[in-house]
Write a structure and sequence with these properties.
719 residues; globular; N-(1-d-carboxylethyl)-l-norvaline Dehydrogenase, domain 2; six-stranded mixed sheet; binds ligand L2IWW6SD; 2-enoyl-CoA Hydratase, Chain A, domain 1; alpha/beta; 3-OHacyl-CoA_DH_CS; 4 domains; Rossmann fold
Length: 719
C-alpha cells in the first residue's frame, strides 16, 4: 500500500499505492509509517520524496473506514513523524491532494505540485474538520483569513492558487516526481527547523475577534443548521490563539464530536450516493456497465425560453457545439443576448474564455437535421410537444437521440409520435439549468439502454449529477413534491399560516419553505395542471367550495389565489407580498390572513394551534411515503437515487442526507406510526396511507438504507 524505492543515489521515494485515489486506508498508513522508518534509518538516504501512484497524490482518509471501529495506526502521529524527520521530506503532489492527503503534504518540509493538481481540505463537506492537524497547520502557513475560507467551504483550489497562497513551494509543468526528486537532492543537508510548519507562529491578525465573529455569522447563515462549519471556525480560532500542542488538542476534541454525529453520517452517505447514482439500472436489467453511450459532438436545443437558454449555456460550457432553435424571432434575439451575457459572466467568474463560438442560432427547425442529440424545451403542452416530436422524427438524421425537458408529461406519448421510440428519453433539467446540479434522465417503456447511457454521459459532461428514473407522473422529484404541497395546504385550512409552515421547513434546513418556494416557481404552473386534471374549479367569491374531489380531500386554496391573479413573485403577490412584480423579498400579507379566516368561516372550520413538529411530520413523512411508493413500483432503483434528487434538485438540507436517509435516521417505525396516526384521522388523504414497502421494511427490522434493495427487489412491480 506504500512502497519505498531508492532513486538518484540518496533519495528514498515512498509511493502510495492504493488505487484509484490512494486514500489513507489502514494498510496505506501502515505502509507509510514503515517506509518512513526504513528511509530515516538508512544512512544512504539523505532525503525523502512522497508521491502517489497513477498520477494521484492522495484523496485523504478512507471514508469507508470511518466508524467506531477504525483500526490501524492513526493519522496524526503518523504525519507528525514526518514533520520531525531529520532528513528533508518533499511532497510530490499531482492529481489530487485532499483532506488527509493535503495534511500529509503539509507535514512534509517542501511541497512541489503539478500545475493540474487540485488541493483542498473538503472534510467540512463530509461533516468533519481537517482533523490531522489541518486546522492548526494551514493558518500558520497561509494565514487565518485564507484558511478560514478554504476550511469552511472545503473548496478545491488549483496549483496556481496554492502557489499564490504560499501553500506549495513550486509548481511544475513537467514530471512531478522527477521535479521533486531534483528538488530533494538540492536541499539535502540543509537545516529544517524553519520548514516545520508547527513551529511557526500563526501570522498576526489585527481585529482577531471581529474577524472570527464575522466569519461565524456568515457560516451560520450560509450553512444553516450544519455543525461542521462552526467547528471548523472554532478549530482555526484555536490555531490563532493557542500554542500548537494545545490547538491540536482542541482540534481533536471538536473532531471527536463531529466524527460520531448524525450529520457526518448523512454527508458521508451522500458522498457515496452521488457516485452510486452513476451506476444506474433499468427494470429490464440493462445498466451502466452493459450499455454504451454514443458520442455527442453536436446538440440542438429547441425552444429558447428560460429552460432552453439555461440548457444552451450548460451545453456550451461543456464544450458541446449547440444549434439553438427558436421559431419566434424576438425570443430568439433575446435568447442570443441572454446566453451570451450568461457565458461572459461565467467566463469572468471561472477565468476561462467564453464558449459563444460553439453556438449557432436559427428560427428554422430544419437546422437540427444533422445533430447527434436534440433537447426539446418548448412550452409544457402535450399537443405542442407531440407535434414537435413528429417533426423531429422526420427531420433528424437516423440515430439522433430525441430528448424532452418535460417535467410532467408522459414520455411514452412523445415517443409514440416518432419512428424510433427507442431513441426518446427525458432530460429533466432544473431551473436555472446551467446552475442546478441535478438532471433526471427519464426512460420510457421503449427507451433503449444506449439512449439512457448517452443522456447520462452527456449530463456528466455538463457537470450534472444525473439520476436515471422511470416514467411516472412527475417522475421522482415532482411526484414526491405533490403530497408535500398538498399537506401544506391542508395545514392552512386547519389553522396554520404560510409563515408558520415555512418557518418549520426552513428551520429544518430547506433554503425556502413550501410557500416561498411556490411563489418563486409560480403558482399558475400547478393551477394549469390541476385544471387540466379537472381538479381546479372556479370558486369565485360566493361559489360553493367543495373540499372533496374524486373521493379525496382537496384544498382549493391555491386555486383561489390564482383566481385573484396572485401567481407569486412574478405578479408581486402570492402567499406573500413582494412590493412589485418580480420582487424578491417576501413580506407577510394581511390579505392572505383574511382569506384564510374567511375561507375557514365559509366552511365552518375552526382554526386550531399547529406546532412545528406536526408541520414537519405531515409534510415530510407524506413526501417520504411517496418516495417509498416510487421505490416499491420500481420508478427509482435505489433510495440513493431519491436522496440525490432531493438534495441536488429540491433543497433538502445536505446534512440530513435526503428523505430516505432521514427516514432511516428518524426510525422507519416512527415514520410508519406517525403516518398511520395521520391517515386514521384523514382517511380521504391517500398519500398518508403508509405504503407496502414501509411496512415491509419495518417488519424486516428497519434495515439501513444500503440494505433496502434486498427488500425492494422482492416486492417491486416491474415497469
Ligand atoms: C480519522 C480522521 C482523521 C483525519 C482527517 C482526515 C479526513 C479526510 O481526509 S476525509 C477525506 C477527504 N477527502 C475527500 O473528501 C476527497 C473525496 N474524493 C474526491 O473528491 C474525489 O473522489 C476525487 C477528486 C479524489 C477524484 O474524483 P474522480 O476522479 O471523479 O473519482 P471518484 O470521485 O468517482 O472517486 C473514485 C473512487 O474513489 C472513491 N473515493 C474517493 N475518495 C475517497 C475517500 N477519501 N475515501 C474512500 N473512497 C474514496 C470514490 O468513492 C470512488 O469509488 P466508488 O465509485 O466505488 O464510489
Amino acid at each position: 500500500m506504500a512502497q519505498l524505492s531508492y532513486v538518484s543515489g540518496s533519495v528514498g521515494l515512498i509511493t502510495l499505492q492504493n488505487p484509484p485515489v490512494n486514500v489513507l486506508s489502514a494498510a496505506t498508513r501502515q505502509g507509510i509509517m514503515e517506509s518512513m522508518k526504513k528511509a530515516l534509518n538508512d544512512p544512504k538516504v539523505k532525503s525523502v520524496v512522497i508521491c502517489g501512484q497513477n498520477g494521484v497524490f492522495c484523496a485523504g482518509a478512507d471514508i469507508k473506514e470511518f466508524g467506531p471501529n477504525i483500526s490501524g495506526p492513526s493519522i496524526v502521529p503518523l504525519i507528525y513523524d514526518i514533520e520531525v524527520a531529520n532528513k528533508p521530506v518533499v511532497a510530490a503532489i499531482e492529481g489530487s491532494a485532499l483532506g488527509g492527503g493535503l495534511e500529509l503534504a503539509l507535514t512534509c518540509h517542501y511541497r512541489i505540485a503539478h500545475s493540474k493538481t487540485r488541493l483542498g481540505l473538503p472534510e467540512v463537506t463530509l461533516g468533519l474538520l481537517p482533523g490531522a492537524g489541518g486546522t492548526q497547520l494551514l493558518p500558520r502557513l497561509i494565514g487565518i483569513p485564507a484558511s478560514l475560507e478554504l476550511i469552511t467551504t472545503g473548496r478545491h483550489i488549483t496549483a496556481a492558487e496554492a502557489l499564490q497562497l504560499g501553500l506549495v513551494d513550486h509548481v511544475t509543468q513537467s514530471d512531478t516526481v522527477d521535479s521533486a526528486v531534483k528538488f530533494a537532492l538540492s536541499v539535502e543537508g540543509e537545516p529544517l527547523d524553519s520548514r516545520r510548519i508547527s513551529k511557526r507562529p500563526c501570522p498576526h491578525l489585527p481585529d482577531l475577534d471581529a474577524v472570527f465573529e464575522a466569519v461565524m455569522q456568515k457560516v451560520r447563515q450560509k450553512f444553516y443548521g450544519a455543525i461542521a462549519p462552526i467547528a471548523c471556525v472554532q478549530a482555526v480560532r484555536a490555531a490563532a490563539t493557542l500554542p500548537f500542542s494545545e490547538g491540536m488538542k482542541r482540534e481533536q476534541q471538536l473532531m471527536s464530536t463531529l466524527f460520531t454525529s448524525g450529520q457526518a453520517r448523512a454527508l458521508q452517505y451522500s458522498f457515496f450516493a452521488q457516485r452510486a447514482v452513476g451506476r444506474w439500472s433499468m427494470p429490464s436489467g440493462a445498466s451502466w456497465n452493459t450499455s454504451k453511450a454514443r458520442p455527442v459532438h453536436r446538440a440542438a436545443v429547441l425552444g429558447l425560453g428560460t429552460m432552453g437558454r439555461g440548457i444552451t449555456v450548460a451545453l456550451a460550457q461543456a464544450g458541446v457545439s449547440v444549434v439553438a432553435v427558436e421559431i419566434q424571432e424576438k425570443q430568439l434575439n433575446e435568447a442570443r443576448e441572454h446566453v451570451y451575457a450568461t457565458l461572459e459572466r461565467g467566463a469572468q467568474q471561472s477565468g476561462v474564455s467564453p464558449s459563444c463560438a460553439n453556438i449557432t442560432y436559427s428560427h428554422d427547425i430544419q437546422a437540427v437535421a444533422d445533430v447527434d442529440l436534440v433537447i426539446e424545451a418548448v412550452l409544457e403542452d402535450l399537443s405542442l410537444k407531440e407535434k414537435v416530436f413528429q417533426q423531429l422524427s422526420a427531420i433528424c438524421k437516423p440515430g439522433t437521440l430525441l430528448c424532452s425537458n418535460t417535467s410532467s408529461l408522459d414520455l411514452n406519448c412523445l415517443a409514440s409520435q416518432t419512428k424510433n421510440p427507442e431513441l426518446v428519453v427525458g432530460m429533466h433539467f432544473f431551473a436555472p439549468a446551467h446552475v442546478m446540479k441535478l438532471l433526471e434522465v427519464v426512460y420510457g417503456s421503449k427507451s433503449s439502454p444506449e439512449a439512457v447511457a448517452t443522456a447520462m454521459q452527456l449530463g456528466k459532461k455538463m457537470g450534472k449529477i444525473s439520476v436515471a428514473v422511470g416514467n411516472c407522473r412527475g417522475f421522482v422529484g415532482n411526484r414526491m413534491l405533490k403530497p408535500y404541497i398538498e399537506q401544506s395546504y391542508f395545514l392552512l385550512e386547519e389553522g396554520a399560516t404560510p409563515e408558520l409552515v415555512d418557518k418549520a421547513l426552513e428551520e429544518f434546513g430547506f433554503p425556502m419553505g413550501v410557500f416561498r418556494m411556490s411563489d418563486l416557481s409560480g403558482l399558475d404552473v400547478g393551477w394549469r395542471v390541476r385544471k387540466e386534471d379537472g381538479l381546479a374549479e372556479p370558486v369565485g367569491t360566493s361559489g360553493q367550495i367543495t373540499r372533496l374531489r374524486g373521493g379525496r380531500r382537496y384544498s382549493p386554496l391555491g386555486d383561489i389565489l390564482c383566481e385573484h391573479g396572485r401567481f407569486g413573485q412574478k405578479t408581486g403577490l402570492g402567499w406573500y407580498q413582494y412590493g412589485r412584480p418580480g420582487g424578491r423579498v417576501a413580506k407577510s400579507d394581511p390579505w392572505v390572513f383574511n382569506l384564510l379566516e374567511e375561507y375557514r368561516a365559509r366552511l365552518g372550520l375552526t382554526a386550531r394551534p399547529i406546532d412545528q413538529q406536526e408541520v414537519l411530520e405531515r409534510c415530510l413523512y407524506s413526501l417520504i411515503n411517496e418516495g417509498l411508493c416510487i421505490l416499491e413500483e420500481g420508478f427509482a432503483s435505489s433510495p440513493e437515487d431519491i436522496d440525490v434528487i432531493y438534495v441536488f434538485g429540491y433543497g433538502w438540507p445536505k446534512h440530513r442526507g435526503g428523505p430516505m436517509f432521514y427516514a432511516s435516521m428518524v426510525g422507519l417505525a416512527t415514520v410508519l406510526e406517525r403516518l398511520d396516526h395521520y391517515y386514521r384521522s384523514n382517511p380521504d388523504v391517500p398519500s398518508l396511507k403508509p405504503c407496502k414497502l414501509l411496512r415491509q421494511l419495518v417488519a424486516s427490522g428497519s434495515p439501513p438504507v444500503h440494505k433496502w434493495k434486498e427488500i425492494t427487489k422482492k416486492i417491486q412491480n416491474r415497469l
